[in-house]
Amino acid sequence: MSGRTQNVNNTRFNAEAAAWDSNPGHIRSSENALKSILHHVPDFTEGKGKDIDVLEIGCGTGLLSFMLAPHVRSLVGVDTAEGMISAFNAKIGALPNPETANLAAVNVLLEDADDVHVQGAAAALATRRGDSRASEHAPHRFDLVVSHLTLHHIPSLPAILETMFQSLKPGGWIALTDFEDFGSDALFFHPKSKREGVERHGIKRDEIEMMIKGTGFENVKVATAFTFSKDVDAEDRLPERNLDFPFLICLGQKA
Ligand SMILES: C[S@@+](CC[C@H](N)C(=O)[O-])C[C@H]1O[C@@H](n2cnc3c(N)ncnc32)[C@H](O)[C@@H]1O
Questions:
Q1: Which are the contacts of 218, defined by CB distance < 8 A and separation ≥ 6?
Q2: Of the N and C termini of the chain, which has fewer Cβ atoms inside 10 Å?
Q3: Annotated domain spans of the chain
């Protein structure tokens, strides 16, 4: 990512972090993403969710992370905006027993599966749950990688898919949700004031499917996850209006 794009994104998300969870749209879209993940990922449909360790790219304040955590063994979130991670950590601190939480988040641009921050967080969660052989499992690898509403900010999709692939155990899955580039109206998902730092206006169905296959994933499937209705601003000659944005779930398994 160019340093400038990253700075634009970090500045925007640091500023939005404190109020992020008070936007009902943010909560609604994470609830829909959770529903789709639980519906599509075999670990959940086969009742094995509580055995799995999850990595989340672009966890933000943890909306999806805190919804997913009760369904899994552990979750490590990463996010490039320090403000988002502070909000995530404040929510951990507000839990009745923060020291037993099965989730953690780190402020890092993840480009390497062996990243020390991610490895440290995964090891700490393993130790916390009483896994005395935690250090023998290093480097830690995950059973599932999720990412919600973040792919459209990431400049190189092949690069992040490769990092996800390396971060998974054999047999592990990706389940990535983001809005679809369904045509020219996809531009209006972001108001004009938030378009700088947006790398692409949604995910192209055929393109992401090809990239996931090209990374080496098997059992690849890209499906409509849900439709998200959103009021969009008046712009140029177009009035303020409500638009339906399709969201995709992008699935693949590391053999
Ligand atoms: C639209 S927000 C979504 C946050 C969260 N997933 C949610 O749905 O509430 C996008 C998030 O991606 C983060 N982000 C942007 N580029 C990233 C990257 N390369 N790696 C990790 N996080 C990134 C931003 O800091 C921001 O928190």
A1: 252, 253, 254, 255
A2: C
A3: 3-253
- Name the amino acid, one letter, at 135: S
- In tens, the pLDDT along 139-184 reads 999 999 999 999 999 999 999 999 999 999 999 999 999 999 999 9
- Kindly report the protein residue whose alpha carbon is nearest to atom 27 of ligand 1: 60
User: Ligand 1 pocket, 197 CB below 6 A?
Assistant: no
Residues in the chain: 255
Of 74, 72, 77, 84, which Cα lies nearest the Cα of 17?
84
Task: State the helix-helix crossing angle for 205-215 and 157-167, rounded to 10 degrees.
Answer: 40
Residue nearest to atom 19 of ligand 1 (CA): 154
| pLDDT digits 0-9 by tens, 203-230 | 999 999 999 999 999 999 999 999 999 9
Residues 24, 116: contact at Cβ < 8 Å?
no
Closest C-alpha to ligand 1, atom 3: 149
What's the one-letter identity of residue 232? V
CATH architecture group of domain 3-253? 3-Layer(aba) Sandwich (3.40)
Residue 182: strand pairing partners: none
Q: Which helix (H) or strand (E) holds 54?
A: strand 53-57
Cα 178 off chain centre by: 9
